[in-house]
Amino acid sequence: IVGDEGGGGEGTLKLKGTSYGFLLREGSREGSRERSSREGHSSGDGGDAYDPYFLDDPALQSGKERMVLNLPGLVASVLPYVRPRALKAQLNEQWALKHQWVSRGLTLSKIRAAKASLLEWVLEANCEVSTAALAHVYFERLVLRRVVNKANRKLVAAVSLSLAAKWNEPESLGTLLAAVERHYSIPRATVFRSEFSAYAELAFDLRLEPGDIFPHFSRLLTQAERTPHDYLGEANFAEFQAEFLEPPADD
């Protein structure tokens, strides 16, 4: 990969000497599973068994320091105040212990910052939050494929957003790439040159299961301070509710 830990910079994402012929066989999902088994991934990716809570668990928000109070009939856990810098280091440490296979230098805070940028650009361009949700899934799957490191994380995030826009709302691609160039200083030509390698790692398949997207979509709406009903509107929310939420109780 150009622009890896030793090279620095935001070079083109390119996997030299890697054949993707097996992915062109009938059923690209089968090809993806074959490659995963050949490489012996222990990342939890499991081929096409993507878990939206595996890489970035939203429950991981508090540090490791806590005080346990054993009171009569009650056991309480108290979290002391921790300075933001120290909390960031503690969260990165906890995360690294669970994901020791990740490239050295790639931390939870860097992954979350890259994903936060994707939402920021989508909102800035007045695009669909679902596009950011798709990009989050693509980005996490590329991390699980071990093609993301500290040096190229911004480029991979930009490529993930480009692929998501092409799949979900192609008319917004130019606006989103302009935001990438403005904030990350990555030319759109570099993004386009890197797309094929990322697309290959995604098994040439941008389709996702609704259950893979929904957790990201829900979290992103919360971060954008919107509710599903407010964002989707009455008609679309009814369909959304039938697909993902508990049916309303009968009066």
UniProtKB/TrEMBL annotation:
Residues 26-42 have a biased composition (Basic and acidic residues). Residues 26-53 are annotated as: Disordered. GO terms for biological process: regulation of cell cycle. Signal peptide: none annotated. Residues 117-206 form the Cyclin N-terminal domain. It comes from the Eukaryota. Pfam families: Cyclin_N (PF00134). InterPro entries: CABLES1/2, Cyclin-like_sf, Cyclin_N. This is Cyclin N-terminal domain-containing protein. It comes from Emiliania huxleyi. The lineage of its organism: Eukaryota, Haptista, Haptophyta, Prymnesiophyceae, Isochrysidales.
